[in-house]
Design goal:
This protein has 3 domains: 5-64 and 208-231, Pseudouridine synthase, CATH 3.30.2350; 67-201, Pseudouridine synthase; 239-291, Roll (Archaeosine Trna-guanine Transglycosylase, Chain: A, domain 4), CATH 2.30.130. Helices cover 24% and strands 38% of the residues. The chain contains 9 helices and 20 strands. Strands 1, 2, 3, 4, 7, 10, 11, 12, 13, 14 and 15 form an 11-stranded mixed beta sheet that branches. Strands 16-18-19-20-17 form a 5-stranded mixed beta sheet, sandwiched between helices. Helix 4 packs across helix 6.
């Protein structure tokens, strides 16, 4: 088995992302394993793991867009903005009755595009060097400041009345940029309608170019029944490609810049199937921001 690469896992519900990393460390026989974007224990779906030198690319994959399928419950709010938290407020029938499907769709419509979003207080966002969820568990009450996020797609499915009309249940499909909280979408829709909202199901279907069709199960990860992706394969799928000459390959092995890229995006420099470096334009040169080629 290769010593540097990637594995795409379909995370099971009830596990933390770190639980999956721990399984991968045993299966891959290395401590150097990381993941691209945390999934809550309740969530399932795509978790991209990098190991060995693959961990050097994880930050760039994490920054890519992600897609989710989720189920929103309107009519009750929880301390965690999902079904695992204690209910803190419940809407009355008088509050729910006037709410129309059109009103719900209009509220979701307002969340498309680049917006300001307040992360859930039980998120992994750090506050004063400590994870927000740890401070909540210690009994502290606070709200995180809103920050800019981009939601490029938010499709609303059928809207159902559940629990004898005491709840609305809505399936949504979301594509968003890094830092977006799907739980916050549910919470904010409920707050704007004055009836509260939370998330009852969440499945991540894509992270950057990696989707469920490439994912293995946690059981397959445990058994070692998989073929990892190489760093070169992942880099070629993630970034624009630049084929380099032999002389350019030698320059990169010493960390020297090349002539400017055609694109201002991060670009992968390759020689055939060999990954050499990640390049980014700066001061009229394509400068290496990560070098993988050995010195010549």
């Amino acid at each position: 088995m290769i010593t540097d690469g990637f594995v795409v896992v379909d995370k099971s519900s009830g596990m933390t992302s770190h639980d999956v990393v721990a399984i991968a460390r045993r299966s891959l026989k290395t401590k150097k394993v990381g993941h691209a974007g945390t999934l809550d224990p309740m969530a399932t779906g795509v978790l991209v793991l990098g190991f060995g030198n693959g961990t050097r690319l994880l930050q760039y994959i994490t920054e890519g867009s992600k897609s989710y399928d989720a189920t929103v419950i309107l009519g009750a709010s929880t301390v965690t903005d999902d079904f695992e938290g204690a209910i803190v407020a419940t809407a009355s029938k008088d509050q729910l009755t006037p709410i129309t499907d059109q009103a719900i769709r209009e509220e979701f419509e307002l969340m498309r595009g680049t917006i300001m979003q307040r992360p859930s207080s039980v998120s992994a966002v750090k506050v004063g060097g400590e994870r927000a969820y740890a401070r909540v568990r210690a009994g502290e009450e606070f709200e995180l400041p809103a920050r800019q996020v981009t939601i490029s797609r938010l499709d609303v499915g059928e809207i159902h009345r559940a629990q004898g009309g005491e709840r609305f249940e809505i399936d949504i499909r979301v594509t968003c940029g890094s830092g977006t909280f799907i739980r916050a979408i549910a919470r904010d829709c409920g707050e704007r309608l004055g009836i509260g909202g939370h998330l009852s199901a969440l499945r991540r279907t894509r992270v950057a170019p990696f989707d469920l069709s490439q994912a293995i199960s946690v059981e397959e990860l445990k058994a070692g029944d998989f073929e990892p992706l190489t760093i070169a394969q992942v880099a070629a799928k993630t970034f624009p490609l630049r084929e380099v000459t032999l002389s350019e390959k030698i320059e990169l092995s010493f960390g020297r810049p090349l002539s400017k890229n055609n694109s201002d995006e991060i670009t992968v420099a390759m020689s055939g199937e060999e990954l050499l470096a990640l390049l980014q334009n700066r001061d009229d040169k394509a400068r290496p921001i990560a070098v993988f080629a050995a010195k010549s």
